Amino acid sequence: MPDIREITDLSAPELDVYARLSEGQLLHYYEPDTGLFIAESPKVISRALDAGYEPVSLLMEPEHVEGEAREVVSRCGGIPVYTAEARILTELTGFQLTRGVLCAMRRRRLPDAASLCAGARRVAVLENVMNPTNVGAIFRSAAALGMDAVLLTPGCSDPLYRRAARVSMGTVFQVPWTFFDRQQCPWPERGMEALRELGFKTAAMALKKDSVSIGDPALLAEERLAVVLGTEGDGLAAETIADCDYTVMIPMAHGVDSLNVAAASAVAFWELGKR
């Protein structure tokens, strides 16, 4: 049976995770143990549960307990389910909930990059992609278009941040991912070395005079390939491009010089993810 608790006091400390703690504070909530993240919408929460993440509490409009979130509530056992009308939830959280449901969940320890990619053939590497919307969109493309894993540099937005997970439609719980460790596997020096040790060739997505087309036969024939995408605006660092085995461009028309990193990822994954 769900433990339904109507919200009567917006300052109640048990609501801090939804109302008063930043994403960074949630990340370190149980430090030195793993922290928390907030999943938004029944679909995203369901995919997190499918992946084995542990729910801590739920927050939703009363109508969703037996409505859109009924299956999610039933899967979460006896954890607290805090309820209030949409207006109150918006006042509490500071934003309008997507589909009226949030879930606080425990994070899991991340694997190291080498073990994550041990059996992979096509991986995406994100260098300092800071916008959570872009990170979420890239994960959705990675899931749909055949990437086996995603690696992120420490400067990237966390895929479990609420907006990233929501934009991804929960695919951040389906595609294996991890961060390069800042000390043990700094990017790009040790990160590139680790990829090469695993047998990967690296392809930097960048507009350079010596770039090869994304449809280049030699590129498509690589047995193991890491597709490297750069930050919004500036793109990849010059050092990263120089360290990669290929510099790759997407041919453009009408004088367009580049695509948003999320759009470029979809094109690259579609073409380079072909087996």
From TrEMBL:
| Gene Ontology molecular function, alphabetical | methyltransferase activity
Q: Which Gene3D superfamilies match?
A: 3.30.1330.30, 3.40.1280.10
Keywords (alphabetical) are: Methyltransferase, Transferase
Matching entries from Pfam families are given as: SpoU_methylase
Which Gene Ontology terms describe the biological processes this protein takes part in?
A: methylation
Q: Which SUPFAM superfamilies match?
A: alpha/beta knot (SSF75217), L30e-like (SSF55315)
Question: InterPro entries this protein is in?
Answer: Alpha/beta_knot_MTases, Ribosomal_eL30-like_sf, rRNA_Methyltransferase, SpoU_MeTrfase, tRNA_m1G_MTases_N
User: Where is each tRNA/rRNA methyltransferase SpoU type domain found?
Assistant: 123-269
Give the PANTHER family listed for this entry.
Answer: RRNA METHYLASE, RRNA METHYLTRANSFERASE 3
The protein's name in its UniProt record: RNA methyltransferase
Q: What organism is the protein native to?
A: Enterocloster hominis (ex Liu et al. 2021)
